[in-house]
Amino acid sequence: MRNLESEEHRETRGFGIDKLNFYTPNQYVDLVELARARCVDPDKYLIGIGQERMAVAPVDQDIVSMGANAAEPLLDDVTRASLGLLVLGTESGIDQSKAAALFVHQLLALPEGMRVMEIKEACYGATAGLMVALDFVRSHPDRRALVIASDIARYGLDTPGEVTQGAGAVAMIVSADPTVLAIEPGTVVASRSTYDFWRPNYSTVAFAQGKYSEEVYLAMFRDAWNRASQMGLTCPEGLAAQLFHIPFSKMGRKGLRTLQGMMTDDDYGRLANRFEDSIRYGRQVGNIYTGSLYLGLISLLENDSSLRPGDRMGLFSYGSGSEAELFFGKLCSGFQSELNSAGHRAMLEGRTKLCVEEYERVFNAGLVQDGSRQVLERSDFDAPHYLTGLDRHQRLYR
């Protein structure tokens, strides 16, 4: 009888995000100052792009250390012991063979008996990791998974994409009976090969066809929304918020505007108001690629006090190249207890502002590539994990 009851419970329990957190480096450049240095009207950045500040990653904070810094506050002994899977989504890989997730696994002192992997599909990578994690916990409801999105967006100095750079990481614990967001099983996904954004192995900066990328993003969202509507998944009158992948806030705003006329003014107004809360953190951090959608989720939850358990929201994930997925979730009872509004705001407000010359110097700093020994200075003494240097082509962390 106990086995039958267990199976019945497994069919009805929810699966989703139990805890989540983000980390961003402790320095930034003000986009008004950057605009003036580039002889551009600041409103082009503040309004046209929709960004205010851009996080700047020092050389000792890479995707490994940022990912570990985002995940560390989520882990206690019980959570560590329950983990059976670690997935790191990134498009800022540090090795063509060894997964960055293995470095994170060691830094966080996680159990050896678990699966560890890195996933790449541009900005969709973390969502792919989340879906893998959901499948894992559905099959192993007594285990948890750790999903990390960690990226450093680089386009080059004084380039059209420079203002959409950024750096940071989001970490999520995925489990059965989650505390934050229960993910619904019904999703809409689409994949197609495009050259809207890419970075060849031989380049340290990305290439993009900006207008074309916007067209693909919007077309894939419209198609996903229409398909979801046909499946009965959208239900605008019952949707508390619609979140987007935010490479810069104006892109998500354009996605939202495609819904005008497809629902009542009241329903659209509710989504539009909550969209503003979802971009507050992103406007201060910039583009963090795989983590941008989930930074928006944290921003919404920590800046909108009107949200309640049971509220339903849509999440649109997009990765250039291209892959997109629209999925839905409901806020769980007690989600407010897992938020860290004061800590995240203190982190953002306590950062050091770099002048444009300092920012350019940090941007141009790099790691040795000849196998020699390099020792790095620690940039953030509030962050537990950082890259200490290189020796014989091996990265050394503490």
TrEMBL record:
Q: Which Gene3D superfamilies does this chain map to?
A: 3.40.47.10
Give the Gene Ontology MF terms in alphabetical order.
Answer: hydroxymethylglutaryl-CoA synthase activity
Example GO biological process? acetyl-CoA metabolic process
Pfam families in the cross-refs: HMG_CoA_synt_C, HMG_CoA_synt_N
Which positions are catalytic residues? Answer: E91, C123, H245
Q: What is its EC number?
A: 2.3.3.10
State the UniProt keywords alphabetically. Answer: Acyltransferase, Transferase
Q: Which domain of life is it from?
A: Bacteria
Q: Where does (3S)-3-hydroxy-3-methylglutaryl-CoA bind?
A: D41, Y155, K254, N287
Q: Which residues form the Hydroxymethylglutaryl-coenzyme A synthase C-terminal domain?
A: 273-365
Question: What's its top-level EC category?
Answer: transferase
Q: Which InterPro entries match?
A: HMG_CoA_synt_C_dom (IPR013746), HMG_CoA_synth_N (IPR013528), HMG_CoA_synthase_prok (IPR011554), Thiolase-like (IPR016039)
Q: Where is the Hydroxymethylglutaryl-coenzyme A synthase N-terminal domain?
A: 14-176
Homology family:
Belongs to the thiolase-like superfamily. HMG-CoA synthase family.
Question: What name does UniProt use for this protein?
Answer: Hydroxymethylglutaryl-CoA synthase
